[in-house]
Amino acid sequence: MPFSVKNISDVAYDERRAFIFRTLNEVFKDFEPNKVTEKAVNEIDLNKYAGVYVIGFGKAAYEMYLGVREHVKRKLKYAGIIIPSDQEVQYLPELDILRGTHPLTSTLSVTSSKKLLSKARPSANDLVLVLISGGGSSLFEIPQEGITIDQMASISRAMMDHSANIYELNTIRSALSSVKGGKLARILYPATIIALIISDVPGDDISIIASGPLAENKLDPSAVYAKYRDIIPIDITKYVENSSIEDLYFRNVMNRIILSNRDFVFEIYKRINEPIVSFGSNIQGDVTEVSEAFVRSIYEISKIKGKSFWFVAGGETTVNVKGNGIGGRNLELALRFMKLANFSDFLFLSIGTDGIDGVSPAAGGIVSSDMKLKISSQELEETLDRNDAFTLLSAYHGAIMTGRTGNNVSDIMVGYVSLR
Ligand SMILES: O=C(O)[C@H](O)CO
After folding, report:
1. What is the distance between the alpha carbons of residues 322 and 246, in angstroms, rounded to a whole number?
2. Which stretches make up the MOFRL domain (predicted)?
3. Domain segments of the chain as ranges
4. Quick check: CB of 80 below 6 Å from ligand 1?
C-alpha cells in the first residue's frame, strides 16, 4: 500500500506543485513501514528465545508485520494484528488479521483485542514483538470493568470535538483502559517484550503513542479530568487508582521508536535543494492559531531573508468542530493558511501521512496564490463556518486523494513563499 496521489493530474497542475508531490513520493518510499521495521528487527538476535510471538495494532501494523515476517519465521509461535476494518490487505497464511474501528473504538475492537490476548500466552523464555502504530488506541482496547466500550468511544468523541490534544485524550483513555498505560506489560509478563513503534505523536512520548500499552503514563489524569469534567460523564477516580503498575512488570520491556514525524520533516528538508526553513516536528494547537502562527512567522522570516523560500513542518493540529461539513484538520489548515496569506506567490500543503484527514476522503489539502484569486472571501468564510474544507478544495484542485498509505507519522506541512 505505497503512497500515491490518485488525482495527481488534478492537484499537480504546475511545476512547483508537481515537484512537491515528487518529493513526497520519494520520502514516503524511503520510509515505508516494512522497510524501517525490517531494519530494526534484523538487529534482534532470536537465538536467545524459545519462541517468538508477534502482536500488532495500528494503521501501520500490517506493513510492519511484512517487515518482520522473514526474520521471525523459524521461531514463530503466533502472529496477530488488529487493523482498521476498511483497510485492504492480502491474506497471509500464518497471520491472524483482526479488525477494529478508528478513530472511535467499538465492540469490534474489543472482540479482536480479546482474541489477540487469548492467543498471545508467552512463557518466560519467549520473546513478544509488539508492533505499535497510531490508531492503536481505538483498535486495541478492552475497557476496565465498570466502563462500557460505548462510554469510552463517546468520551473520546466529546474530547476530540472540544479540541483536546492527543496527550490529554490518551491520558484519559489510558486511565479507563485495562490494556493501556503499561497494562499490557503486566499481561505479557514475564516474557521479554520488544516494542517497535512508529510514532504519530508530537514529542514521540511512548506512553502517549497508541495510549502506551507498554509504558506508564506520567501525566496526571485528575488534572485532565478536571479540565474536561463537563463532557466526561463518569467519575474516573477509581479507574485512575487501578492504573498504577509496579516497576517489576517493565523489567523485560524495551520500547523502541523506529520512525517518527521528525524523520519525514528532516528528509523533506534535505531533499528540497533550495532555500528552506524547518519549523520542526512539534506543531500543535488549534488549527486557527496554528495558521496564524505560520503566516506571521513566515512573514517575519521573509523580511529577514528578503527572497523566496520553502518551509517544512510536522505535528498535529486540532479543530473545534462546529459545522457538519466534510473536513479534516489538514484541509482546514490549508484553507485557513490561504485565507490569511497575502504573499504575492505562495503554495501550502498539509497532509495526514496515514492518507485520511478527519471525516473527509482526502489525505489533506493544497492551496496556492492563483487559487486564492478564484475564491471569494465570503465563500471561504462560509466554508470555514461549516467545517467544509473538503467540499471547497475539491472544486479547486486542492483535495489530495491518496487512500490509506499504510504509514502514520501524523501530519506534514510543506510550503513555498515569495514576497515579490
Ligand atoms: O492511537 C492513538 O492514540 C493515536 O494515533 C496516537 O498514537
Report:
1. 43
2. 311-411
3. 8-30+262-418, 33-259
4. no
What are all long-range contacts of 219-224, with beta carbons under 8 Å and residues at least 24 apart?
Answer: 219/167, 219/168, 219/171, 220/171, 221/171, 221/172, 221/174, 221/175, 224/168, 224/171, 224/172
Q: Which pLDDT does position 320 carry in this prediction?
A: 87
What CATH number should be reported for the domain whose range is 8-30+262-418? 3.40.1480.10
For 275-327, write each residue's pLDDT tens digit.
999 999 999 999 999 999 999 999 999 988 888 999 999 999 989 888 999 99
The CATH topology of domain 33-259 is Rossmann fold (3.40.50)
The residue written with cell numbers 506543531 in the block is 283
Greatest Cα pair distance in the chain:
67
The rounded Å distance from CA 212 to ligand 1 centre is 9
Give the CA-trace dihedral at 399, 6, 281, 417, to 10 degrees: -60
The values of phi and psi at residue 260, to 5°, are -150, 175
**Three-state secondary structure of 58-90:** CCCHHHHHHHHHHHHHHHEEEEEEEEECCCCCC
